[in-house]
Amino acid sequence: MEIVILPDNQAIGSLGADAVEDLLRRKPDAVIGLATGSSPLAIYDELANRYSNDRLSFAKARGFTLDEYVGLPADHPESYRNVIDKDFVSRVDFAPGAVRGPDGLAQDIQAACAGYEEAIARAGGVDLQILGIGTDGHIGFNEPGSSLASRTRIKTLTRQTRIDNARFFGDVLDAVPTHCLTQGLATIMSARHVLLVATGAGKAEAVHHLVEGAVSAMWPGTILQHHPHVTVLLDGAAAGRLQLADYYRQTYLAKPAWQGI
Ligand code: GLP
Q1: Spatial CA neighbour of 66 closest among 94, 90, 44, 37
Q2: Res 257: pLDDT
């Protein structure tokens, strides 16, 4: 796991966008895993800027989102499909239908989840997964207790996650759906490069477990310690509880530029 502690969101956006830009140069038809939430917004903003400046194109790329609420109407502004369209997809030049997400309105949930796994596999797997982390250590919507070997499936949201997300539903806890579909931990682990972003002191405990804790289903993100290529982009506040923060800073400063992330 490479830990990069950066001064602010803008620096996170810039370095994250560099990783996507490098990938698209190497592989214009890359498969990108897209996360919703506030954490990746700086990366999406920077990518949209670079697209406007003709620096990169998503015309041949494909995307898969991580998760979706169950039962939200298709036109609900907080369905993750609509959120990712607004925050990123509609701002660049993905081809129509090139970005898919789990179907939270499917009649046959199990078939929809299996079909989603198949679609990712048919696309050749995810090259770069952009990821956030919940305050309870969830990635995607894999809440504490999730199987470390899980694939896309239905999950019940914890009360904490529903409280965290109530701000998107007019601060009304009951308006936050109780269930979701999410890529599993094993699905996320299949991505070739994982780029996880966390900012703010509210994430410091989750980051502490993610990077320096024991691998445990109680802190689902810790499974990433078994992944060969994970980059964690943090601001100082999110890195606030890391025992080896100075070491990570020195290591990154001394890293040859050609290595990239
Ligand atoms: C939600 C999403 C996750 C996201 C997490 C953190 O629960 N399902 O994918 O990582 O929230 O969100 P934020 O980045 O807004 O803190």
Answers
A1: 37
A2: 86
Mean pLDDT, consecutive 10-residue stretches, the chain (261 aa), reads 98 98 98 97 98 98 98 96 98 98 98 98 98 96 97 96 94 97 98 98 98 98 98 98 98 91 90
Q: Is residue 261 part of a domain?
A: no
The whole domain housing 78 covers 2-255
Report the number of distinct structural domains present in the chain.
Answer: 1
Instruction: State in Å: Cα 37 to ligand 1 middle.
Output: 4
Distances (CA, A) of 176 to 19, 70, 171, 179, 182: 33, 10, 9, 9, 16
Q: Is residue 260 part of a domain?
A: no
Residue at 8 is within a domain: yes
Q: For the domain that residue 34 is a member of, what is the CATH number?
A: 3.40.50.1360
Does the active-site annotation cover 205?
no
In a domain? residue 183: yes
Say how many Å lie between the CA of residue 256 and the centre of ligand 1: 32
Q: Does the annotation mark 67 as catalytic? A: yes
**pTM of the complete model:** 0.96
The rounded distance, in Å, linking the Cα atoms of 199 and 204 is 8
